Amino acid sequence: MIRETVYFEGRVQGVGFRVTTTRVAKAHDVAGFVKNLPDGRVQLVAEGGAAAVRDFVDAVQTAMAGGIVNLECHRGVGTGEFGSPGAEDAFRVVV
Question: If you average pLDDT over residues 44-48, what whole number do you get?
Fold first, then answer.
């Protein structure tokens, strides 16, 4: 299991980014969260198999392409702290 932390920059707050990301997560075997940051970026943390996480991040990028101007990715080892990837409550919005 891997963990990918992604920071999205651009017009990513106030445009349904978190809701869209949560919807996209339901189609992928991932666990984690998405949240707005005070500096205007959105942080996404996803855990799961390498292919599932990569496909998920790609799908979010595609869905929100009109607002993203930059992203920064950091890959590490998954911890399992968000539950089983793909479980109904495994991916959530953090306020």
Answer: 98
Give the CATH number, domain containing residue 84: 3.30.70.100
As for how many domains the chain has, the answer is 1
Predicted local confidence at residue 88, as pLDDT:
86
Distance CA 71, CA 28 (A): 20
Range of the domain at 15: 2-93
Could you tell me where the beta strands, DSSP code E, fall in 2-94?
2-10, 30-36, 42-48, 68-77, 91-93
pLDDT in tens, 50-90: 999 999 999 999 999 999 999 999 999 999 999 999 898 99
Instruction: Assign residue 80 a region (left: φ > 0; alpha: ψ between -120 and 50; beta: otherwise).
Output: left
Q: Are 47 and 79 in contact (CB under 8 A)?
A: yes
Q: Which of 23, 36, 54, 92 is catalytic?
A: 36
Told to judge if 70 belongs to the known catalytic residues of this protein, a careful annotator would answer: no
